């Protein structure tokens, strides 16, 4: 059984992982706020001089267009551009239906229960599945202990447990709903299922750490793996490489499914 460790304050790199999404969120908020201000300051003289009623549908559409333009000019990712384009117009449409605010609150709570990782660490929920388990299992030494950091609903661990009964498998997640579904699915298996933040979970007991996260935490997670895992252990990332350790990666690509695994060996001191 692996103990949860409370390392107190996360190490510096891990703090940086928290910082990055916060800064990104502030940038998007600033962008949207600037668009609202610009749209209102153009609309106010327009309607004032004409002495007509405000056309809020037009104002919200213009706000969306300005926000989209700002997002494009500042080269935000395409999905942010889309969010900026649609945010105010959808808000306006939503207000036309007189829907009780409780529905919005309920929808927000549900999304938070499922996508907590996206809100707090820029790590959304998407799943590996059986194909990744198939590619992964020949790489694993007999009897090794593997941890899936951010294990979702155990969609990697369950097929892996069937393919390799010799492995000691564990997963950790901090999004309430996926964790609960994972707990239900793993409760009668030999998979260790932990609730909590993987930044506070020691990687020392594992010979293999697997992750399928996002580009955001990779640098800090690799640093944590190097600090805690024993030399010779494997750090495997599905889809997202570690920028700092590009040359160290062994890359396994499956052309058929598009799956790409990045394999890193933990080095001992003085090893290059
Ligand atoms: C892309 S999913 C991968 C799920 C699973 N590993 C798989 O391959 O099918 C990433 C998961 O990481 C979880 N996660 C994000 N940040 C986390 C954190 N700090 N601690 C624990 N889990 C986290 C999310 O809740 C999400 O379920």
Proportion of residues in extended strands: 5-15%
Instruction: Tell me roughly what share of residues is in helical segments.
Output: 40-55%
Bound molecules: S-adenosylmethionine
* CATH fold naming of the largest domain: Rossmann fold
Which ranges are low-confidence, i.e. pLDDT below 50, for 5 or more consecutive residues? 1-19
Helix/strand structural class: alpha/beta
Note down, in words, how this protein is organized.
- With 272 residues, the chain is α/β, with parallel strands linked by helices.
- The protein folds into two domains: 12-98, no CATH class; 130-265, Rossmann fold (3-Layer(aba) Sandwich), CATH 3.40.50.150.
- Helix content is 49%, strand content 13%.
- It has helices at 12-50, 56-73, 78-96, 101-121, 130-136, 157-163, 176-186, 218-228, and strands at 145-149, 168-173, 192-195, 208-211, 234-238, 250-254, 259-265.
- The protein has a seven-stranded mixed beta sheet with strand order 3-2-1-4-5-7-6, with helices on one face.
- A hairpin with a 4-residue loop joins strand 6 and strand 7 (259-265).
- Helix 1 packs across helix 2, helix 1 runs antiparallel to helix 8 and helix 2 (56-73) packs antiparallel against helix 3 (78-96).
- The longest helix is centred in the N-terminal third of the chain and has 39 residues, at 12-50.
- The radius of gyration is 23 Å and the shape is elongated.
- It starts with 11 loop residues before the first helix and ends in a 7-residue tail after the last strand.
- Mean pLDDT is 87; it is low at 1-19.
- The structure holds S-adenosylmethionine (SAM).
- The site of S-adenosylmethionine has 24 residues, from helix 4 and strand 2.
- S-adenosylmethionine (SAM) binds at residues 116-117, 121, 123, 125-128, 148, 150-152, 155-156, 172-175, 178, 197-199, 212-213.
